[in-house]
Write a structure and sequence with these properties.
This protein has eleven helices and 25 strands. It is an alpha+beta fold. Strands 7, 8, 9, 10, 15, 16, 17, 19, 22 and 23 form a ten-stranded mixed beta sheet that branches.
């Protein structure tokens, strides 16, 4: 019997079985390979401690179980930490508001953070992932889904000795540095962020992992298109944030209207070759941001009321893609739509952002007038119009069987078999941040409502995906089924459960004693 027990324990140590439906206790192969590649121990300090509600206790337990699971494939240790040690990182607690059973409101400060230390380098992992408009249970469940990716990304960042380089393109009226300051600061945690013009060297972009083209306003030359095409053929990744229409914010602010015209950037043939078309259309959506409008007829007594600004849609995110999974709505203004073209071109295409189920498309040229704020609801007859798309595969060259443009140093063009990635967003405003009191506001922040939307998460995830060669972004597709308890019913049957929990074991113990006594009496009565 003892030998069988030893063999059983040995087998349990060698083989681990996860019998849960959502495989919540199993690690992705990318995580295992990352941990196996480490050549020094990892120390994890968890600060989520104290008086926690059941939801945060589940999050803490899931964090501890994940660290223990990582320890199966590498050298990991974990401990609980004092939140005071988080002050150098500038991290503040999360205030949890709860209503007790007797109707009172209680506030608890929790620190949903952990630190990961590897070879004297330390980084912070945020354990709580909040999405606007979702319940606390849903946000906590999404936080548990995101744990493996959060720790894997943190560990990977500590192992990188020289950061990858990304570049914002200049020279075509793109957004200036201050207008993309917030997303640049977010990306600087992972990359070295540069800016620059293309010049005449086709290899000028070869040292960059991702190139970002943020809201260009002037035409691309054939030489610029050739350099971008050359970069993509060699496996480079590009994030396009481009408008399909031209408009004037100043005219709209001062005069109350602006003409909207097609914006010709001379890249339609390039994008068409890559299987995507950005249309010169203007989208409106009933799911949109509000804008304050003076509804008073007396100029001496203005009365500003919030009215829906249909030209500022709140875009829906795909929950099937690791780029946009668990990302909240994305805000932008004067949006166009994208189409997948090319048919069977061997490219993988996926919609990332789309409008709601009540949208409409306006052809250009057109005019946007603040005096016309009440369009006919019956005209919003389109649903889920694509605004952003991911395209991946081996892209054909626009310049195949063509001479290089004048001024290019290279004299020959060869098609490449290297797979590449691109993300095309038909809006330049999606990446723009505003300033207030000499401070950059978060990208996706709406001054009027005071809400911050999911722009930063979307853009950061997009660049991380484009630069991901290890497959770590696939960890964001983990899904844990949320099984909610009916709180009202639980409180109703609470006394019954308490009584059964106390009385039933005693009755079972007494019944077992009676049965054993009767059996023993019968057994020994025959002797």
């Amino acid at each position: 019997m003892r030998v069988a027990l030893v063999i059983l324990l040995s087998i349990w140590g060698l083989f681990r079985f996860d019998l849960t439906d959502d495989k919540r206790y199993s690690l992705n192969d990318a995580s295992k390979e990352l941990v196996r590649s480490l050549d020094a121990p990892v120390e994890v300090t968890i600060y989520l401690d104290g008086e926690l509600n059941p939801g945060f206790k589940r999050l803490k337990r899931a964090t501890e179980e994940l660290v223990d699971e990582l320890g199966v494939y590498g050298s990991f240790s974990r401990q609980n930490g004092d939140p005071k040690t988080l002050e150098p990182f500038g991290l503040t607690p999360t205030i949890v508001h709860e209503r007790t059973q007797d109707g009172r409101t209680a506030q608890t400060a929790v620190y949903p953070y952990a630190t990961v230390c590897y070879k004297s380098r330390t980084t912070v992992v945020s354990l709580l992932h909040n999405t606007r408009g979702q319940s606390g249970e849903q946000n906590l469940n999404q936080s548990m889904e995101n744990l493996e990716y959060a720790f894997a990304e943190a560990i990977h960042s500590l192992t990188v000795t020289e950061p990858l380089r990304i570049a914002f393109l200049e020279g075509h009226g793109e957004l200036p540095e201050e207008a993309v300051y917030d997303i640049s600061r977010s990306l600087s945690r992972y990359f070295q962020v540069d800016r620059g013009v293309l010049g005449d060297d086709p290899a000028v972009l070869d040292n960059y992992k991702v190139v970002i083209i943020a809201d260009p306003q002037t035409r691309f030359s054939e030489k610029d298109k050739y350099i971008i095409d050359h970069y993509i053929r060699r496996g480079g990744s590009v994030l396009w944030c481009i408008n399909g229409v031209r408009f004037s914010h100043d005219a709209l602010t001062k005069e109350g209207f602006t003409p909207v015209l097609p914006l010709d950037l001379n890249i339609s043939d390039l994008l068409f070759r890559y299987g995507v078309r950005v249309n010169s259309s203007l989208l409106q959506d009933v799911q949109c941001l509000p804008v304050p409008v003076n509804v008073s007829s007396d100029p001496m007594q203005p009365n500003f009321q919030p009215l829906p600004w249909y030209y500022a849609p709140l875009l829906l995110t795909s929950q099937q893609s690791p780029i946009t999974r668990n990302v909240g709505q994305v805000s932008c203004t004067f949006v166009s739509h994208v189409d997948a073209v090319g048919g069977e071109d061997g490219l993988e295409k996926e919609v990332l952002l789309a409008t709601s189920n009540a949208s409409r498309i306006t052809a250009t040229p057109a005019e946007v007038d603040l005096g016309d704020m009440n369009p006919d609801p019956a005209t919003f007859k389109y649903a889920y119009i694509p605004v952003a798309m991911r395209v991946e595969g081996v892209f054909p060259s626009l310049f195949s069987h063509r001479l290089p443009p004048e001024g290019i140093k290279e004299t020959s063009v060869q098609d490449s078999a290297v797979s590449a990635k691109q993300i095309i967003v038909a809006s330049g405003s999606v990446i723009r941040n505003e300033w207030q009191h000499n401070e950059a506001l978060p990208v996706g922040y709406d001054r009027y409502s005071g809400m911050t939307f999911g722009n930063r998460d979307f853009l950061t995830n997009a660049v991380l995906y484009l630069a991901d060669d290890e497959g770590l972004m696939s960890l964001r597709q983990r899904e844990i089924t949320l099984r909610l308890i009916n709180t009202k019913r639980a409180y109703a049957v609470k006394p019954v459960i308490q009584v059964l929990s106390v009385v039933l074991p005693i009755l079972l113990l007494a019944l077992t004693g009676v049965i054993v006594t009767v059996i023993r009496r019968r057994k020994y009565a025959r002797m």
